Amino acid sequence: TTSNTNAFDSKFFWSVLYATPLLWGFFSISAILFLKVNAFVTLGCALVLSGSNVYGYYKCSVEQREKWNSWMNRGAEMGVGAMMRNSSTSVFGWLGNRMAG
Fold first, then answer.
1. What is the spatial distance between Cα 67 and Cα 59, in angstroms, rounded to a whole number?
2. Which of these, 32, 41, 64, 82, could form a disulfide with 60 (CB 3.0-4.6 Å)?
């Protein structure tokens, strides 16, 4: 069913997302232990980037999605309301005036 697929996809996504910084951290520690400075710089960058990716997805998960939808709905309502109130300067009023003559 769809809910099982979505649950599996969600668990897989979040598992891989959380596992990636752990893997980069393990490789970074091994680079330090074996004194591979060049590798450590690259692995350190990968660790920081994947960690920030986890942080961003975590912060944007449900709370931000709800806020975004609320902002979009409010903006659309304001835009449609303004367009209806002032049809002479709206795009539709302008197009109607151009087509009429």
1. 12
2. 64
pTM: 0.54
List average pLDDT for each run of 10 residues in the chain, which is 101 residues long: 69 88 93 90 93 86 70 82 66 61 56
User: How does DSSP classify residue 35?
Assistant: T
Long-range contacts of 50-58 (CB under 8 A, 24+ apart): 50/20, 50/21, 50/24, 51/21, 53/17, 53/20, 54/17, 54/18, 54/20, 54/21, 57/17
Residues recorded for the chain: 101
